[in-house]
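Quality-control log, excerpt.
Job 1 of 2 completed; input and output follow.
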Amino acid sequence: MSDTALTTGIDGDERAAQTFPRLDDEMAQRVAGYGREETLPAGTVIFARGQRRVDFFLVRSGRIEMFETDHAGQTTVFTVHTEGQFTGELDLFNDREILVSGRTVSDARVVRIDRAAFRRLVTAEPDIGEIIMRAFILRRVGLIRHGRGGVVLIGLGHQRETLRLERFLVRNAYPHRILDVALDGAAREALDGFGLTEADLPVVLAPGTAVLRNPSNAVLADILGLTETIDPDRVYDVAVIGAGPAGLAAAVYAASEGLDTIVVEGLAPGGQAGTSSKIENYLGFPTGISGQALAGRAQVQAQKFGARLAISRMAAGLDCHGPAFRVLLEDGTAIPARAVIAATGARYRRLDLPRYAHFEGQGIHYAATAMEAQLCTGAEVIVVGGGNSAGQAAMFLSRTVARVHLLVRAEGLAATMSDYLVRRIAASARITLHTRTEISAFHGDDTLTAVTWTDRSRDLSVTRAVGNVFLMIGAVPNTGWLADCLTLDPKGFVPTGLRPDGTPAASPYATTVPGLYAVGDVRAGSVKRVASGVGEGSVVVQAVHGFLQPEP
């Protein structure tokens, strides 16, 4: 078995060599200093799928193969590590359940490095750490691309619950394959094989577990081992609530500066920015970067420095009356922390129209990524909104759809959208801008089939055969969990920068509750941009230090 088996479809030998690099003798000697050398007989299982906190192995001689076993007991080997190569992928940076199994093919001499020593290695040997980080990221990309080490999702492709589960897997970078029963004969066979009917859909098939019938996000996260165990007696230095750009930046800087840090996120890293198809005006990325890619890199960066991420754990409240804060979670557990950074961002507004809730999630979307784009290839779509997110969505979708109707209530885009996007939209042959226009009705039975919009300047209504609408209008702050702890402004955002007596606070991100800070879109008066959120998240850590260790 070739050691590049997992990279089938990856462009070029260089990318394959980066995915499965071979350390030279000098680097291997340095790595060996962080672990102990062992000789393992052929057939030794060094780790198995579903385990947590497995060790890192450097092969000195012999061979170690990575494999998976499906529901039928069939084993597939998809890569083999030989001398100078190493095991592992992104889950080595956290306490999640690993996705694959590993065993020796022949007698092997290895260097075994435990989790704590591995973190020291990555930090203390930056040249080696860079090679490992790049390899781990590319290995996860390979697993996702080829559906290795993941789950099978069976359902109706346009069904709300199927899309919810697919979106959860995609945004958490969890490998998976999708079988659409409306299009794929293999999906029907799988249903028959497990004694399932369409009434059970959607279902998730995960190795080693029972069939999951339409699980909630939290249940799926627990079954797949995405959820890290939270010790209720451990008091963190800082709890960051929300893993959007602001929250992830705060986590990176807090953890890198030695603070015991945990991040709580209800769905997946990235927040609203994570749903953006491409961000082109973020410093350092001249060709642009998708919101999901940016969030994924930031997540790995935070974990590299030791931050813990509690995914699929929604904050339901905050107890700020004891010696330490207690972040109350929806599942009834609590996380104690000496300081709290609120970075829960905002969500797009909804329309007050009949049958809106019925089509939400199956025709009405709040993100325009590759996943949503595949639902409407060759069709007409509607994008509602005049901000950058709407502009980016319109440009992204215009590459594959027949027509994008961009609806705005204003006279134009110049006041709310970056000029580079305004010019691209004006030049696009597939985007039609409708000003002073808003949606007035949705039509369809189970799924959305048509939409009526009204041009208010002419009092003219038009109905088009449209099955997918992308809404990106306004911002509603996610601050309900804070309501019992501090007073919000009239729009529900968090006021910052003032003490309870009205005098300026030491930090522009401090709230009236000592030790509680707010950054990013959730903060009153913030600039709703990815770069500003990242800046606020990085700067607030200085104030947290000052609170935790006040000067005499």
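Job 2 of 2 completed; input and output follow.
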Amino acid sequence: MRWRTVMTFFESLVALLLLAVVLLQVARRTWIPYPTMLATAGVIVALVPGTPAIGLEGHTALALFIAPVLLDAAFDFPLAAIRKLWRPLVALAVVAVLLTTAVVAWIGWAFAGLPLAAAITLGAIVAPPDAAAATTVLRSAALPRKTVQVLTGESLLNDATALLLFSAALAVQSNGGIDGSVALQLGLAAPGGIALGLAMAWLFRFIIPYTRGSFGGNLLEFVNTFVAWLLAERLGLSAVLCVVTMAMFIANSPRMKIDARNRVQSFAVWGVAVFVLNVVAFLVMGMQARAIIGGMDPARLREAAGVAAMVVAGVVVTRLAWVLVYNRLAARFALLRGDAEPASLAQGVVVGWCGMRGLVTLATAFALPSDFPQRDLITLSAFAVVLATLVVQGLTLTPLIRLLGLDSGDDSQEHQAAERALTGAALAAVAGAKGRVADEVRRQFEIDRAALDGGEACGDFNERRRLKLEAISAQRERLRQLRDDDAIGEEAFERLQEELDWRELAIGPAGQRAIEEG
């Protein structure tokens, strides 16, 4: 029986992974965010007869699902954006989370009879939006880049706010109140988490040179992330701030530069891992929701459904109302927006509607102890918020953008300006070199810069790229023949194949399009 249960879960996971691959291709060709499809698919797969109910230990769920996702997002987020946009970030990542928590806590206390600490726990679970689904849609909208950066930064910082609230409320509920030790632990959680993250990053920089360029190096990145999270939890510190601080320190430290080969390999591994974690989380969500609903009598289910509906409404309305209020205040008072351009009312509506909940809400719901007051109602409400926001807001976000006339975004000019700046930096770096080789290098960069201005130089540039790709294709075919004829060994084949891959990547996607069109 135990073997059959494991196989049933494995079969369900394989089915959802296959379905996720298909849905991702559909999402790439439509305006529907893939998390919306994934949430629906997770519930459908979990409803298939024979699918087991899977439970996860709370701390395991938080570490497994949240730590890698946070590190992946924090690693790419620029520190300069936080310094410039801290006012709107505070408005969304702190104030909006606190307001949402307060509204939902009142609903839980007044209509579900939850103890105050348990009601705050519910509010903290559903308060932080997951901007991943929203930003995939907003890439095609004419929103200012800083607005999109605010949404991305919000998904990092609001997790810290919500999880600090979650941990505090959970500790108060478990201890029956606040005493000296609990107060001290809560006071040290945020600064201690930041300090631990800096320490972990400092230690990591001494280890990483010995493991780079190997599968062990990729594995160490995950192990280090999980160790940082688990150690912070054991010490009673903020695991979110620990992981985010560690990621940003590693990404921005000049002593921890990552070469091109390791960066391509690492980004590919992390991209797949984060995608798989999302798939597993939604599968487990569906399985737990099925078990919770199946264990409720009709009267209890109607009560829980009513509370869940009020929580969904409270979450959506609170965010939208606060964003519109802040939007108008920031447009009037420059002190509230800092360096950011004042957003229009239409842009404020879109940002307010980007309140889709996701992985963090799921993981924190999983993390509730089994004996927590009205755990079934709280968990069901969290699942309802995730499904409702991902499906309703996810499906209507793009039509809303079009309705408000914000669907004409184009970053091609920004991209070309950046390419010109990079070419200028390259020419400046070799300006003082003398000799025939230096002249040839400078000439190549001058050709690249001229191609960016269009006209005949651009046509020549694309033709040159096309010919280079044809030559590399011929080299690949010859390399395969050498391997098939046993003229070279597997190690030499892989090394030469990697060199050809880097040459092709250096030519760029424009060259690939040129050869395909040719």
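Post-run check on job 2. The chain has 21 helices and no strands.
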